[in-house]
Task: structure prediction
Amino acid sequence: MKTKILPSANNAYQYPLLIKSLLLSGARYEPNREIVYGDHMRYDYLTLNQRIRKLANVLTEAGIGAGDTVAVMDWDSHRYLEAYFAVPMIGAVLHHVNIRLSPDQIAYTMQHAEDNLVLVHSDFQALAESLADKVPSCKNYIQLVDEGDASDTTLPCLGEYESLLANASDEYDFPDFDENSIATTFYTTGTTGNPKGVYFSHRQLVLHTLNMASTLGAYEGLPLLRSDDVYMPMTPMFHVHAWGVPYVATMMGVKQVYPGRYEPNKLVRLFHEEKVTFSHGVPTVLQMILLCEEAHTTDLTGWKLLTGGSAPTLGLAKEMANRGIQFHTAYGMSETCPLLTATYLHTDERELSMDDQMPLRIKTGVPCGMVDLRIIDPNGNDVPHDGEAMGEVVVRAPWLTQGYNKEPEKGEELWADGWLHTGDVGSIDDKGVLQIKDRIKDVIKTGGEWISSLELESLISQYPSISEVAVIGVPDDKWDERPMAMVVPVKGENPEVADIQEHLKQFVESGRINKWAIPQDIRIVAEIPKTSVGKINKKWIREQDQQTRQA
Result:
């Protein structure tokens, strides 16, 4: 198709979409709003911008330039927020190190990313020392200390972060460069093999930020983050840029509270003391919040929570509603920056009782602006939008990763036929609402039918004495697979397997599930294993079950 390009003056400024532009509005609108780091530090937005320029000077004087990689090993902090901006704004790449991976996996990611300098918290200094020989590209380290003085180290260390910033100039002229330059990278763990390096450009992060700001703030059916809110993340900053919200919050100039290491009682205390109004986290973190001692004596009314990463159960949603928490669900993945969909309540739905709203609030939601989303069968054909037909979710949006670092063949697989393949199974109803049914690898295939492990988990969670539940498919000679459930009781309760099975029969009678979906194997356990970002680790559960069967 022939299109006409508008002419421009030779000296017209070709505005590149760079992360530095996200810093402009916050300090203009609300210069006195605070950035808070737990009990350690607080300062205003003018100081944030000043500290970002100081960090840029520290990095530049250390020899870091365009194309170099700066890694961060830290808890959620003001320092991490400053690195979110300063590192990519000088043209370098910010590597968010997943500190919850095994030492061997951490070493692999740092070596694969070719880290040149590492900002390392004192809690991870011994780990960094043990890995230093495995990361030959790294020439310098900067110590991050919360209390007391920096300890002695065998690392080639430039100094302690705050001391270096204190002695640095606060003048820095951030350059323009190609908006498609890589800004950030981090590693996502798959079901097999080494972690894969996901990367995002300045352009992608700016577009994602603008879209998320409008998605979370412009709609009455999704009222989560406005300029007067107080934001505290409960998703690690090393995981998909804490879902991208710190960029949004900084652009909007909202008060931001960074809690450091996650500890449920501390999070609830910060919510109360700092008057937090908006947070986000995976369901397991939200469950820990509700069960902690501090939450028992704190009024949680008015806390707006966005959950994602894994499907929230109806039981968890109702529990949050009972505590006065306004709850919404979002969907995305590491490769999608991550926002793809979020639950939106129409005018008539907002008039329903909170109990009646909960089944709507746990749905994956409608695609956000600029997101093209399809559900396809194995032949690539669209499935009917009837809420029943299932297929793989494939997407397009301006902020999706273009591939995996140094692994072009895996990038080609991710983008087969020009659509990013999520590996998730879902359905879409006649209102355009997406519901994720399962991961392709987690769907239970029994007797020629598919059973959603996520739906089974949600139904089991409604049994009153159950705190957590995980369902996987286990091999069966007759049916190919059968569901197996692991259940954590509420403290002080002792549920019977037969009672849980009886509870599920009501959903068979209503047609929600078939009789084969009721697990014959239900295991009462003290805890359910989690991944490095707090999701239920079904890969580990399957491996342990297989070893038990082979023993």
